[in-house]
Structure formats: structure tokens, C-alpha cells
């Protein structure tokens, strides 16, 4: 942008200088020529009285003296002779012999002639020849000065434009830097509102937007904190009810579920509090987490007569994702299967290393499938083909993308839905 401003100012200034200096240069040339002709005319007129009354010897001496003193060639045509500087009898001279004083352009310069009447004798003619060099005397120097003036004005205009462009570009770059900082989560970044012109208005609006975002996030954190207190009270009651169940296995299963909900609520609160801070890089053993959560859901699968096939490696399989987030992914996918397929529907959970690192989690079911799986809208937040909230698949998608992976929906070999979750080793 700075270069464009300089080009624009330079081109505009050059056009103005050309429009101003070219006519001025031509005027200087005309003035110099007129001045040279006027000076030659004055010198020639000094001989008028002598030509009219002086005798031949005195006139010849005076003409030689004037010609020697003058920078121009001075001649007098009298009685068929040429006194002073040698000159030809040009048409202008013959015209002056008829009584007309005039001037005109001749080869090599300009000639000025005066007709001098002599009582009782033929008219004499005074001729002054001004060469082209005399007509252009000082013109080149004046043109050089005008050119130097034009170059100086152009340089000054470019310097001023450069300073203005620097201020303009600097303000624009500062705005972009603040925008990038806000995009990275640094909500304390603020733009300089003293930027010139409309940039100051944009900076003020950007600062207002940053303040509004910070206020919205603060309200969100407060809402989540309030929600945590509301949720933990019934969770405590559920935990106490679970402890009061006579069947130890049922009590342990319900207690484990309550504890999982409590961990999820705690993780949500911690994520809200960590906002605006530089995130870490959590590394989780996907094999251990998947095996643990599948074991939890296996009890419910047995109660609902579902055949659950599990293929999870025993060796550690690291992925860049928090354990709580990975647990939320597994719970969302398996919860969808249990919620949207009839009892007795078989399902399969597979975890294997992904090409290029990370892990690939595959959940297959033999249910009716998801019609929306045939288009990308099935992964949009709030979109559901079964009347639910539509947040389960979105949770899986968001977590997978945070790890550098993604989610695909396919048809399983059993005719139901297959969800493929790629968990990476870093951000894409």
C-alpha cells in the first residue's frame, strides 16, 4: 500500500509539474528572444540621427564603433554601400528601402531593419542581425533551474507522501496485529484509536468488539459456574442414593456413572476458567481411555441384550487430546447408539493406529442408520435426524478437530451407521 501511495503521489505531482513547467519554459524562451531583439533595436536606433545628418566618413566611423561594441551584427545600407558588419541585401532590407521598418526571421537568427529618411537623398537602412545563440542566451540555464526545481518539488512531495504513507500503513499493520492477537484469544489486545482518519474509527470499533467479547466470555464463565453449583447438588443426592442400593454391582455401576458426570462438569468448568490462557498440549493414552469407557457401557449393553464387540489394543496409543474430552467423545457416540437403536442391536467398537500417527476410533451399529449421514449437515451443531439435540456428533467432531483429526459418517457393514473418528498428534 505504501508503494501504491508513493506511485500515486509521484504520478500526480509529475503531471502537475509538466503542466506548469512546460508552458513556463516556453515563456522563458520567448522572453529571452524578445529581450535580445529589444536590446538590438535600441542599439540600432542610436544610429538613426547620425544616418540622417552625418557625412559619409563620420557615419562610417560611428557604425564601425557601434558594431564593434555590440554583440549583434550592425550594418547600414546607404547610397548602395554597406557600412559596418558585412550583410546581404535581404528582402527585409529592400522592404525598408521603401520606407517600412520591420523585423523577421532569417537564416541563423532574426533581422531588425529601420528605414531612415534623408532629405533630398535616398532612404538609408539600419540593419541589426541577432543570431540564434543570442536569442537563446540564458534559456538553457533557466531551463536547468526549472528542471532542478521540478525534481526538488517531486522529491519533497514523495518525502511527504512517504511519511504519510508510513503513518497510514503503520496504523493498518497495527490494526491487523491486534486482530490477530484477538483471534488467538488475547482479549487484552487493544488498537490505537489515535490512528489517522477512518482507521481511528475502525480501531475504536475493534476495541469495542474486543470488550464485548470479553464481557460475553465473562458472563459465560459465570453462567457455567452457576450451573455447576446447580448440577452438583442433584449429583450428590444421586451418589447417596447409589450408595444406599443393596446390590453392590448396581450401586457401583450407578456410582461410576455419577462420578463420570461429575468429572464432565468439573472439566467444563476448568475449560471455561482456562479460556484466554495459552492452551497446553495434553497427551492421552487413547487405548486406556477407550477400554475404560467401553467397559462402563458394556454393563448397559448386557442389560439391553446388545452384542458388544470390542477391538482395542493393549499397548498405549497416544493422541493429543485431554482424557475428559476423549471420554466425552466415546460417551456421545455410544450414547447415540443406545438412544437411537432398538434393544438387541449389535454394536462394535474398534481402535487402531491411524496412518501418519494418532488413532482411529470406529463405532459400528446394526441399527436403522442415520439418513442425514448422507450429507455434511449431519455433523453441524444442533442437527439431528432422530429428534435429539444433535450435540453428540458435534462434540465428537469438535474434539477430533482439536487433535488435528476429523469425523466421517459412513454405512456400517451391518447396515447401520459407522462413525469414524480420527484422533491426531497435533493441530492441523
From TrEMBL:
Domain Histidine kinase: 226-427
Subcellular location: Cell membrane
InterPro entries noted in UniProt: 2C_sensor_his_kinase (IPR050980), HAMP_dom (IPR003660), HATPase_C_sf (IPR036890), HATPase_dom (IPR003594), His_kinase_dom (IPR005467), HisK_dim/P_dom (IPR003661), HisK_dim/P_sf (IPR036097)
Topology in membrane: Multi-pass membrane protein
Catalytic activity: ATP + protein L-histidine = ADP + protein N-phospho-L-histidine
Record carries keyword Kinase: yes
EC number: 2.7.13.3
GO molecular function: kinase activity
Chief location: membrane
Transmembrane segments annotated in the record for this chain: 140-161
Domain of life: Bacteria
CDD domains: HAMP, HisKA
PANTHER family referenced in this protein's UniProt entry, alphabetically: SENSOR PROTEIN CREC (PTHR44936)
Protein name: histidine kinase
Organism name: Actinokineospora guangxiensis
Amino acid at each position: 500500500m505504501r508503494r501504491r501511495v508513493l506511485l500515486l503521489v509521484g504520478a500526480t505531482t509529475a503531471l502537475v509539474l509538466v503542466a506548469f513547467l512546460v508552458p513556463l519554459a516556453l515563456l522563458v524562451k520567448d522572453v529571452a528572444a524578445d529581450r535580445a531583439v529589444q536590446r538590438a533595436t535600441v542599439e540600432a536606433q542610436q544610429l538613426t540621427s547620425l544616418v540622417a545628418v552625418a557625412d559619409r566618413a563620420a557615419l562610417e566611423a560611428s557604425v564601425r564603433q557601434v558594431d564593434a561594441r555590440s554583440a549583434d551584427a550592425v550594418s547600414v545600407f546607404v547610397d548602395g554601400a554597406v557600412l559596418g558588419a558585412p550583410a546581404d541585401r535581404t528582402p527585409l532590407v529592400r522592404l525598408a528601402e521603401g520606407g517600412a521598418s520591420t523585423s523577421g526571421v532569417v537564416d541563423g537568427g532574426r533581422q531588425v531593419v529601420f528605414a531612415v529618411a534623408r532629405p533630398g537623398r535616398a532612404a538609408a537602412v539600419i540593419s541589426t542581425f541577432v543570431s540564434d545563440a543570442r536569442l537563446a542566451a540564458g534559456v538553457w540555464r533557466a531551463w536547468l533551474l526549472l528542471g532542478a526545481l521540478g525534481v526538488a518539488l517531486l522529491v519533497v512531495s514523495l518525502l511527504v507522501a512517504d511519511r504519510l504513507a508510513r503513518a497510514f500503513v503503520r496504523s493498518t499493520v497495527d490494526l491487523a496485529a491486534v486482530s490477530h492477537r484477538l483471534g488467538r484469544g488475547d482479549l487484552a489486545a487493544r488498537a490505537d484509536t489515535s490512528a489517522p482518519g477512518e482507521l481511528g474509527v475502525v480501531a475504536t470499533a475493534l476495541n469495542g468488539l474486543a470488550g464485548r467479547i470479553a464481557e460475553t466470555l465473562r458472563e459465560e464463565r459465570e453462567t457455567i459456574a452457576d450451573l455447576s453449583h446447580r448440577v452438583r447438588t442433584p449429583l450428590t443426592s444421586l451418589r447417596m442414593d447409589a450408595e444406599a442400593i443393596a446390590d453392590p454391582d448396581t450401586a457401583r455401576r450407578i456410582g461410576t456413572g455419577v462420578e463420570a458426570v461429575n468429572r464432565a462438569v468439573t472439566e467444563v468448568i476448568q475449560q471455561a476458567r482456562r479460556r484466554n490462557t495459552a492452551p497446553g498440549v495434553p497427551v492421552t493414552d487413547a487405548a486406556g481411555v477407550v477400554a475404560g469407557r467401553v467397559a462402563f457401557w458394556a454393563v448397559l449393553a448386557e442389560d439391553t441384550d446388545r452384542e458388544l464387540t470390542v477391538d482395542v489394543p493393549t499397548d498405549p496409543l497416544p493422541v493429543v487430546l485431554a482424557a475428559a474430552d476423549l471420554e466425552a467423545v466415546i460417551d456421545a457416540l455410544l450414547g447415540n447408539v443406545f438412544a437411537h437403536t432398538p434393544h438387541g442391536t449389535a454394536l462394535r467398537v474398534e481402535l487402531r493406529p491411524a496412518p501418519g500417527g494418532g488413532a482411529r476410533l470406529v463405532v459400528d451399529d446394526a441399527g436403522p442408520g442415520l439418513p442425514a449421514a448422507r450429507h455434511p449437515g449431519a455433523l453441524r451443531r444442533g442437527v439431528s435426524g432422530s429428534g435429539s439435540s444433535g450435540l453428540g456428533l458435534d462434540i465428537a467432531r469438535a474434539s477430533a478437530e482439536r487433535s488435528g483429526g476429523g469425523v466421517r459418517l459412513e454405512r456400517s457393514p451391518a447396515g447401520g451407521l459407522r462413525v469414524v473418528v480420527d484422533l491426531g498428534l497435533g493441530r492441523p
